[in-house]
Amino acid sequence: MNDQLALDLRAPMKAARARADLGMQRCTESAERVSPGWVDRAAEALRDFARTQSEPFLVEAARLHIAGSLAEPPTLKSWGGATRRALALGYLAHTGEFGRAASSNGAPKEKYRAGANA
Fold first, then answer.
1. In Å, how far are 38, 41, 52, 79, 94 from 29, measured between CA atoms?
2. 25-68 pLDDT, tens per residue?
3. What residues have CB less than 8 Å from 25, skipping those under 6 apart?
4. What are the domain boundaries of the chain?
5. Tell me, what DSSP letter sits at residue 78?
6. CA distance linking residue 76 with residue 68, whole number of Å
7. Element (H or E) spanning 35, and its range?
């Protein structure tokens, strides 16, 4: 019974992940149209912020610290693409910890730390 339930949940979760990925891609493309190179600059800013942190942090905290030194993207959701880029480049690393984010109505969001290439 539990195996069947797990199978039944896989397809909707896979579809949800695909929609999330598409949304992130669209937000990233929007930010790049408004300010070419924004994602790379945002990833570098996340790297710089991570270097100064001794505790795991939310991207929301980094974003607030970075504000003013980087052009605002069309939507805050563009930070998802910048975070993925920073993770892929080793600027950030997953911690497995979560914290509540005000920008997401208190929903839990992943915390990060400086990565190997920070």
1. 10, 14, 29, 12, 24
2. 998 999 899 999 999 999 999 999 999 999 999 999 999 999 99
3. 81
4. 2-114
5. H
6. 14
7. none
